[in-house]
Amino acid sequence: MTTTQMTGHPAGGWDIEADVVVLGFGAAGCAAAIEAHDAGASVIVLEKMEEGLEGGNTRVSGGIWFDNRDPERAAVYLRSLCGDNPLPEPVVTVWAEETYRNTAWLEGLGAKIGSHGAYPPEYPELEGSDAFGGYLGVEGRMGDGLLYDVLTRAVRARGIEVRLATPARELMQDTATGAVHGVLATGPDSSPLRIRARRGVVLATGGFEADQQMVRDYLRLPDSVVWGTPAATGDGHRMAMKAGADLWHMDNMMTVTGMRAPGFRSGFYTPFFLGKNFLYIGKDGTRLADEQPQVGHGQAVLHGNYELFPVRPMHVIFDENARLAGPVSPGRDMLPVGWNLLVEGYEWSADNSAEIEKGWIHRADTLEDLAGILGLDPHALLATVQRWNAACAAGVDDQFGRDPQTLAPLDRAPYYAFSWGPMVAWSNGGPRRDERARVLDPFGAVIPGLLAAGNVSSTYSWAKDGGMHIADALAFGRVAGRTAAAGE
């Protein structure tokens, strides 16, 4: 991507003009568009994907946000979650105040809000965790695109123009000031569109987790698969960098266990929260880690530290007991989230038999045969499982300290396995921004007319709790919309 440098109007004039141009139609983009419109600005939204595939990760996420009980305590919690990667205090303050206002704002859009349950904080030991009041959601439910439906209805009810299948390609800047005053996009018919933004452009284009090269460069994952939208290819990051943006916490992310399947651009989430009879195995046939540590949305407590987890390629092996405990990848009745479930419409079989038949999951009558399929040393794998089964009998995992309540032997043939990349749920880093969502250059100066919100520039520099990504997207989406409408 390049940045078109110009003063005044481009040759041939503008095809479309608006006060605010929003790039992306997920939670952050919708919030920005609504807020800018309600502040009196004319708004146009450009969305990369075609109808039925639009909406980014918001469309397929849990769509819930955390209940911020107290902004002052929430600010303390965010500082604690940042750990050794502190954020500017003005950003912390605005995050705490605006996430507190999320629920009232959504209710103002006509959403019926309810509690999704009294979920405890994922990091109860951190100062400020008492501000976490559980999850809130539309109708008190998780997933099924409920939040996305509320937001998109509110956008369309305001008469805001939304152009699908219209990806932004370039930011147009003034050569003298560097101010962003337009976007070059490509329409559904592949024709170029020159769109003037009289007051500002809001980047709400999502993360870069679907771009393999960026994942290798910034997240250091050599062979990952994406959990959510395949459209999260770092478009906004490239445009922002070309426009002179600095970057922040580009190495932060959330990974989950999952698998790649032929014919699917996104992966399948495999949480294994039903069967306990499973292990994470490395290339040498040994266990890699505690398979069920205290884990938050991206970090786990390992050896007394908060570390990104999981981050290494592995083989997941399990036995017949685990297979019969329930689906490896949850269905709509259990967890109605994920691209392959909600967009592609794939329902995983209840006993995993269909996926075994497809060859997505390997099956073998013995551990030695399973090792051969995976390319592992059979003696090493057998020794690993024997040690594990002995730990289960003793009730103590002397290798990694796995919770005794989760110890279950692998002792019922046949045996199963799949290999995993890992799967990136979302990236967190992007163009550095201030508390007013204005994008900054490497010297801390504002790039006039350029704003960012959502996963293209997530607030979180390190750990984050459940419901915090949606909360951040809504909060700074609104901030970006107000700032852009004011032309600041």
Automatic annotation (TrEMBL):
Domain FAD-dependent oxidoreductase 2 FAD-binding, residue spans:
19-467
Q: Which Pfam families match?
A: FAD_binding_2 (PF00890)
Under the heading InterPro entries, the entry gives:
FAD-dep_OxRdtase_2_FAD-bd, FAD-oxidoreductase_2, FAD/NAD-bd_sf, Succ_DH/fumarate_Rdtase_cat_sf
Cofactor(s) annotated in UniProt: FAD
Q: Which UniProt keywords apply?
A: FAD, Flavoprotein, Oxidoreductase
Tell me where the signal peptide lies.
Answer: none
Q: Which PANTHER family match?
A: 3-OXOSTEROID 1-DEHYDROGENASE, FUMARATE REDUCTASE
- The protein depicted here goes by the name FAD-dependent oxidoreductase
Species assigned in the record: Streptomyces viridiviolaceus
Source species taxonomy: Bacteria, Bacillati, Actinomycetota, Actinomycetes, Kitasatosporales
